[in-house]
Design a protein that fits this description.
Blueprint: H1 3-11, H2 15-23, H3 26-32, E1 43-47, H4 53-61, E2 66-71, H5 74-81, H6 86-89, E3 92-96, E4 111-117, H7 125-135, E5 139-150, H8 156-177, H9 188-193, E6 196-204, E7 209-216
Parallel strand pairs: 1-2, 1-4, 2-3, 4-5
Antiparallel strand pairs: 5-7, 6-7
The chain binds S-adenosylmethionine (SAM).
Length: about 220
């Protein structure tokens, strides 16, 4: 088992408390900020879901959707599954896999939206490019990538605040999960080069959190 999987398995039961300690409810607000745009979605793919808190909210907000969740940590998946009844679980497929090996026969179908919350921040530029290139063919026509993540604020004390928090977080995840990436990549230009257009954006929490709705215009 990889250091990353072991690390996230270990963190899974306390993840919610670490998040609340560091950010209160701000990350959940960012995750949900533009979900009203996705009300009509029928097929949703979530990359690196974590412990299922967002999945639970998304399931309630988009009740007619079928979900596919790609997540490497069995412990995170176990916590996520526990949030649903057995009849609700019929609408969710969990794929326990590393994203780099996920393009197996396990991943079938065409999606209205791909969601990544606080997930692409773990990868370097070339890896993010590879993830977007690999997964965007799974979008139905001109559909969406819902991107939620940290951002480096541009100016003043907010820039200082985001730099300090990012350093602390990258140090923590390197220690706990063996994360190699140490710098946050802003994937905006990658989305654009790969045929996505930003159609809505929300920035919160001292300009440190961003929620972006990209549309595939290829
Ligand atoms: C930083 S957490 C974010 C969790 C959640 N999306 C959130 O909003 O808090 C990253 C999640 O992605 C999963 N993950 C990390 N690397 C992965 C990979 N290579 N393939 C699939 N999942 C991965 C971890 O197990 C963890 O649950």
């Amino acid at each position: 088992m990889s250091t990353s999987i072991k690390g996230y398995n270990r963190l899974a039961p306390v993840y919610v408390w670490l998040e609340r300690l560091a950010f209160g409810n701000a990350l959940m607000k960012a995750r949900l900020a533009l979900m009203s745009e996705l009300k009509e979605a029928k097929q949703i793919l979530i990359l690196g879901e974590g412990d299922g808190r967002f999945l639970r909210r998304a399931f309630d907000l988009v009740p007619r959707a079928q979900f596919v969740v790609l997540e490497q940590s069995p412990k995170m998946i176990e916590l996520a599954k526990n949030r649903f009844s057995s009849s609700e679980l019929r609408h969710i497929d969990f794929i326990t896999a590393d994203i780099s090996t996920a393009l197996s026969p396990n991943l079938k179908g065409q999606f209205d939206v791909i969601i990544s919350c606080f997930f692409l921040d773990m990868f370097e530029t070339a890896e993010i490019r590879n993830i977007i290139e690999t997964f965007s063919p799974y979008l139905k026509g001109t559909k969406y990538w819902y991107y939620v993540d940290f951002r480096q604020a541009d100016k003043g004390w907010q820039a200082f605040h985001s730099r300090v928090y990012l350093r602390l977080m990258y140090w923590f995840f390197a220690w706990q999960t063996g994360l190699k990436t140490q710098d946050l990549v802003n994937p905006h230009s990658l989305f654009e080069v790969l045929g996505f257009k930003l159609i809505k954006r929300n920035v919160t929490h001292f300009s440190f959190l961003t929620t972006c709705l990209y549309q595939n215009v290829n």
